[in-house]
Amino acid sequence: MESRVEVQVSEDGLEARLCVVPGRASNREELDSALSEAGVCKGFIDEALDSLATGLADPNHACRDVLVANGQPARNGSDGELDFSLSRDLPASHVEPPAKKGKAPEGYFSVVIPRQEIAVYEAPRKGEAGWSVRGEVLPCTDGKDPLDLIGEGLECTPNGTLNATMVGVVIRRKGEELRVRPLPAEKRLLVSISEDSMSAKVRVFPGETGDANTLGSVLAQAGVTAGIVPDAQELLAEKLADPLFAVDGLVVAEGSEPIPGTDGVFSPNFAEEAPAGSVAAGKVDEKGQIDFRNRSLLQPVEADELLGVYSAATKGEPGTTVLGEPLPAPAGAERMPNLGNGIDKKKAPDTICARRAGVILYQEAKQLDVVDASEHRGDVDLSSGNLRVGGSVVISGSVMSNARVEATGDVVIAGLVEGGWRRE
């Protein structure tokens, strides 16, 4: 006789459902028989089965998709974790050669010392197998343990920390063994050069021991050839013998700035300023005009008399960068005054003497000469007319209003100046 009960099991085996159609009156035995024939043997929901058994006693009772059994799904484990507390100390290219096509090596490079904490360890969680309503075991996967990829130089402590056991560099790459690699002595030093190449600093990491030759080799590879600081060189030569020694920002080389040359200087052997009480008209300025506030007295000299000494400009001293590149020094400018015909040029430029007797005509850094001096007795006025002379002139009187004096050299006026004068 055909059963009123139809059993449906889900594809994943985690659910069993029943459908009941009208028919002859029945009981729990028919229900259990249908479930057994479908292979359902586990995870029964008693309340649902009791309700269905009661319904089967009614020939007209019918229902669909009644959940009567549940399986237990598998639970996969979770991976363990390492929560790293490292900083990225070294550029990858400093530790390893470039990868293919010049691409920088991948990874995370950190320098460590013994007993230094690397990471906090969290253990993986194991999975739990499940079962279907037919009693089948549903497999699970366990979480991955990151300690499976722990290599030389590392250990996990009972309190859950991952510590280093040696000096070296930790290289972290996804999916690869985590280990501490010894850091060669030359790799302990990382040199940085300033943008203007006037200083070089070094950062030293813990690692294998080194000496003065180690420092010299590293500086040479960085191109640092000049301005090595002796104190820093001596310190590193000593401290590199300690595998735990570390320092950052130590200046190991300093360039030298260029020293500009000095300008040439003429040191006159005569007074440039008028003595107190002088009534000189003034000193000729660079435009050939008189400055009434800066008076000079005509100074007579004899032939071969020393007028002054000239010190030539210097070239300066060039500087050098720490890379050995020269830095040119600006040369000083020559400031020898133009020497006139009254100067003995055979003795120039160091010693400057008068070639003839006369008076000194001098404009600082512009002109130096010995010229004749004329004397005008009395005033320059309408009775004498305007005065025009070559060289310098001494006027025993005054230059009156509307009168004019023109000279190619200095002018000394004993009296007042009401008119004007011009130096040609």
Which structural traits does this protein have?
11% helix; 33 strands; elongated; mainly beta; four-stranded antiparallel beta sheet; 424 residues
Short recap of the structure:
The protein has 424 residues and is mostly beta strands. It has five helices and 33 strands.
* Class derived from helix and strand content: mainly beta
pLDDT averaged residue by residue: 85
What percentage of amino acids are in beta strands?
Answer: 25-35%
Q: What ranges have pLDDT less than 50 throughout 5 or more consecutive residues?
A: 274-282, 288-297
Q: How does the overall form come out from the CA principal axes?
A: elongated
Radius of gyration: 53 Å
Major beta sheet, specifics?
4 strands, antiparallel
What spatial order of strands do you see in the largest sheet?
4-6-10-9
Tally of helical runs: 5
Q: How many runs of DSSP E, i.e. beta strands?
A: 33
Helix percent reads: 10-25%
What does this structure look like?
With 424 residues, this protein is mainly beta. It is 11% helix and 31% strand. It is built from 5 helices and 33 strands. The chain has helices at residues 28-37, 46-56, 92-95, 212-221, 230-239; strands spanning 5-9, 15-20, 63-70, 81-84, 108-112, 117-122, 130-131, 137-138, 154-156, 161-164, 168-172, 179-181, 189-193, 199-204, 247-254, 265-268, 283-284, 290-291, 300-301, 306-311, 319-320, 326-327, 338-339, 343-344, 351-354, 358-363, 367-371, 373-376, 387-389, 392-395, 404-407, 411-413, 420-423. It has a 4-stranded antiparallel sheet with strand order 4-6-10-9, with no helix packed on it. The protein has a 4-stranded antiparallel sheet with strand order 16-20-25-24, with no helix packed on it. Strands 19-26-27-23 form a 4-stranded mixed sheet, with no helix packed on it. Helix 4 crosses helix 5 (230-239). The radius of gyration is 53 Å and the shape is elongated. The model is unreliable at 274-282 and 288-297 (pLDDT under 50).
